[in-house]
Amino acid sequence: MRKQLLKSGCISFFIGIALNEVIAVITSYRLRLGYFMPCLASLPEQVGGEMNAVVLQMLICGTLGLAIGVAWRIGTQRQWKRSKRLLSAFGSFILSILPTALVTVCMWK
């Protein structure tokens, strides 16, 4: 069971990162910027550079993907009771919101 959760989490982490990049490409194209914008425009100023901003956004999207993948795997386990599955999925959802909340709080000055 742990191996399945770990495998699902790792795959979902990289899917989250890939979706982040696809969304960035589509957004840059739709806004007709003429260049690739890998992160929010104001984020590099707040975190000390574009590379830091890209890494931060990538980790947040990866963590969100990881939490969704683990929650999905837990939710599909038939051998667990329904209450245990819901509690585990809810905990995973909270863990996915935590990085975004921390970044939001840290960015407020």
What's this entry about, in short?
The protein is mainly alpha-helical and 109 residues long. Helix content is 79%, strand content 0%.
Fold and architecture overview:
- The radius of gyration is 16 Å and the shape is elongated.
- It is mainly alpha-helical and 109 residues long.
- Helix 1 crosses helix 3 and helix 3 (50-75) runs antiparallel to helix 4.
- The chain has one domain (2-107).
- The chain has 4 helices and no strands.
Query: Which structural class is indicated by helix and strand composition?
Result: mainly alpha
Q: Note the run of SSEs as H and E.
A: HHHH
Largest sheet data: none
- Low-confidence region ranges: none
Distance between the termini: 43 Å
How does the overall form come out from the CA principal axes?
elongated
Tally of alpha and pi helices: 4
| Structure summary, number of beta strands | 0
Proportion of residues in helical segments: over 70%
Number of domains: 1
Mean pLDDT: 79
Strand content: under 5%
Rg is 16 Å
Provide key terms for this protein.
0% strand; 109 residues; single chain; mainly alpha
List the helices and strands and how they pair.
Elements: H1 2-30, H2 43-47, H3 50-75, H4 82-107
